[in-house]
Amino acid sequence: MSSDRDPLSALGELEDGGFRRLTARLALLRAYARHRDDEGLSDAQAQDDIAEAYEEGAADVPGWTYDVYDSVTARTLRRWAGQFREEGLSGLIDRHGRRSQRSYDSYFGAGSELRKIALYYIADHPDCTSTELREELARHVDEDDLPTLRTVQRFLSKMS
Question: Does residue 124 register a pLDDT over 80?
């Protein structure tokens, strides 16, 4: 999606899952900003604290956000905060573009590079979370070639 596009138009085109992800991102960013301001912390420290609290199920966010994101890293919060700062609400809307046309198999099909990387990582870290696996994949491929967290979650569930 182009950053000069009207965010209200983009909101109207979101499917239910996309809208839930957007509102969950907003809830997490609000929790981080509130924590930063209340405690007088740096952005990085507040993001680290909120990511840790989220992992423990203790973040000051609505309970349904855990249905949308099973985990969130400080790195992800930094990325979302930067996107929001640069593009406003539009920056938090899913950017599938070309990726939305890709199938699950195009990421993790037999013989794919991501599948090989994922299987090696899972062999070394059998109890890894989808977020940890996605971060490992991000070390090996460009952002445009990285599957969504939900796609990684589906892959992990199929491997279990």
Answer: yes
